[in-house]
Amino acid sequence: xxxxxxxxxxxxxxxxxxxxxxxxxxxxxxxxxxxxxxxxxxxxxxxxxxxxxxxxxxxxxxxxxxxxxxxxxxxxxxxxxxxxxxxxxxxxxxxxxxxxxxxxxxxxxxxxxxxxxxxxxxxxxxxxxxxxxxxxxxxxxxxxxxxxxxxxxxxxxxxxxxxxxxxxxxxxxxx
Length: 175
Description:
Layout: H1 2-5, E1 10-11, E2 18-19, H2 22-33, E3 38-39, E4 46-47, H3 50-61, E5 66-67, E6 74-75, H4 78-89, E7 94-95, E8 102-103, H5 106-117, E9 122-123, E10 130-131, H6 134-145, E11 150-151, E12 158-159
Antiparallel strand pairs: 1-2, 3-4, 5-6, 7-8, 9-10, 11-12
Keywords: DNA-binding, Metal-binding, Nucleus, Repeat, Transcription, Transcription regulation, Zinc, Zinc-finger
Family: Belongs to the krueppel C2H2-type zinc-finger protein family.
GO cellular component, one term: nucleus
């Protein structure tokens, strides 16, 4: 019944995550103490639950049994499909307590919170600029390396970001 009501009385002392079943908490605690007895034979990753190992194995086999009813995209696990469905429903269940902005994934909220805390853990080794997201640091590094991964289909000019192609930096008279 707790699963249906959303009641989660079992809380992890380490990270404060809550669970509806004590058995789920017990399994979760193994992630903090490093007890992961289920090992992938192909890449040596380890898991606390056999179910997670089986889901992981689909990465290696390419199996995607969970299909989106809207766009038919396949996913290796049900959680991936659940996250994906938020694109179609515009559901944003993860809300910022400070500014009320909503997010479709918890990781996006975690990254967003760094705006409010000022946390910038990703540091450029070349100019000491700091970023809240690793993705932003990776994009920034292209300034130093000169890498221009994005090419205009018309003039073949290279750009640091995909967005630069659609800016006034690359305008053609036939568009």
